[in-house]
Amino acid sequence: MSISQPLSAAKIKVLEEFFHSDSVNEGCFDYLALHGFLTGLAAGHEALLDEDWMSFIFDGQAEYQNKNQQQEIESTIHQLATYIQRSLYLGEDLELPCSLEAAEDNETNELTDWCFGFIEAIALNEDAWFSDDTKSDSIAELILPMGLLSEQFADPDLEHLMNDEDARQELADSIIENIQNLFLLFRE
User: Which tens digit of pLDDT belongs to each residue from 57-99?
Assistant: First the structure.
């Protein structure tokens, strides 16, 4: 199997089980947040891909049963990262592991978790995201849907967007295009 193929259902299940095991810290990502995080890394500044982000995913160090398990988990995460990077590079429509349906008012859903992961990629190295002053406003505008839908941006001036069901769904509908535009913006 090529490393640039999507993960099989079996590999996703292995990751999900590991993320919910006692081998990881309580703050470890789940699969949806992992996908969002890796998408954020791939779409953002190229320097982000060189960061040591494995401990960020696990909120510290994972406790593997043995070297084989470590290699399986980490190579699967790298396969997913490579697949996302390749999809963006080729301009393919990125498929999220959840629907682009905004959560109901005051609720969270799978898209909320995915967006949380995406915003965490920004938190890994915010300086790299906003290092070019000429692009900062465009970047902020493009990440706004993920920030609002992750419930990590609390701005009273934008509260009207979160209180309007149609506006929340418009934010969700813009995610795929915004990711591709971010990718291109960082590579101009």
Answer: 999 999 999 999 999 999 999 999 999 999 999 999 899 999 9
Within-domain flag for 148: yes
Residue 55 to residues 77, 88, 100, 126, 164, Cα–Cα distance (Å): 12, 24, 28, 17, 37
Range of the domain at 60: 9-185
Give the three-state DSSP class for 179: helix
Short-list 104, 102, 112, CA closest to 151: 112
pLDDT in tens, 119-172: 999 999 999 999 999 999 999 999 999 999 998 887 888 888 888 899 999 999
How many domains is the chain partitioned into structurally? Answer: 1
- What length is written for the chain? 188
Three-state secondary-structure class, residue 188: coil
pTM: 0.94
